[in-house]
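Morning run. Coffee first, then this:
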Amino acid sequence: MKHNVKVLHVGPDIEARGGIASVLYGLNEHTPLFARLGYDFDFLPTTAKLPTGFFDKTILFIGALVRLICKLVRSDIDIVHIHTAIRGSLIRKSVLAWACVLARTPYVFQIHNGAFVPNYLAQSAAAQYCIRKILGRAASVIVLSRSSWDAIVNLQLVAPGKCHVVFNGIADPLKGKSLEHDKFKERIIVTFLGLISAAKGVPSLISAVAAMRKDLPAFSVRLAGIGDIKSLRDAIDANKVNGIVTYVGWLNGEEKAAALAATDIFVLPSRSEGFSVAIVEAMAYGVAIVSTAIPGVVDAIRDSVDGILTRPDDIPALTAALEKLVQDSSERNRLGDSARQRYLDTFTFDLMATRLAQVYEVARSELKPGSLHEAN
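And here it is:
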């Protein structure tokens, strides 16, 4: 009898807030798809659903480590898929990776942060050595963009054949529906989804909105996410855009779907991205996008084809891009249609699942002798 290979995903709680949690939530929602591909999923959270203090984080992590060791000892899993960002996340996940090494269980190490290489180069020689060992012992390393692949391989952190680009994918929110643009909207809606921070370009966005011409069609800017809300509100007050810019809190599930369905322009002027799930979500809804020409984003958005890309912190260019799309409905529709097709061609969940299954096949070849699933 043929058995599926058991894959344990290790990362934040699937209902937590953030990009990695969103990816894990999608994987959990599509476990039947992966079962048909020959892989059964389980999930081991290393952090809580909501932010906690250092002590609580430590207790949760120790508990996750103990549960992982128990599963490894009992041979309950065949492959461990470790999801990491940088800094503290990388330290914690490295400890879990060493547990896999000692148990001779193959693991896939997925890097979700586009600043991984700069962070690595800023570490001490000892820390760099440990990171190289963790990456070198992985059955496969997954990155989210071609630029990340180039940087990691060029530094010889991972052999080219063991490093794989797997773009984040999402289920089609318009499946079975045709994309229709509202040509007679009284107010253009601009939406930002993400961490409320300088790294995501929020101060630049507020400054750009304040600088936009007053003779434009009516528009409003809605920011959703978590982060430095006080600084955001201070910036809104200081730039006198209270009547235009609104903070709507954290959106998830149906609330986020409704917000994106009503959006005309999606804006994400980040300084750094791994690979933005929010941008892919906007593309799936056929929304015109304004973002920055940085690694990760350029893998998704082609400048002047699927959206408009500017340099990070270039407020005049960001202002001009927003002005252009606010006043030109035909250009919004053209970019939105192209973004939608780009999503269908490259970033559907089915495409991501197929690519992940290929990566697991590489890890599967490293299953230890005697494994229940090795002979399948």
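The chain has two domains: 5-171+349-364, 188-346. Good start to the day.
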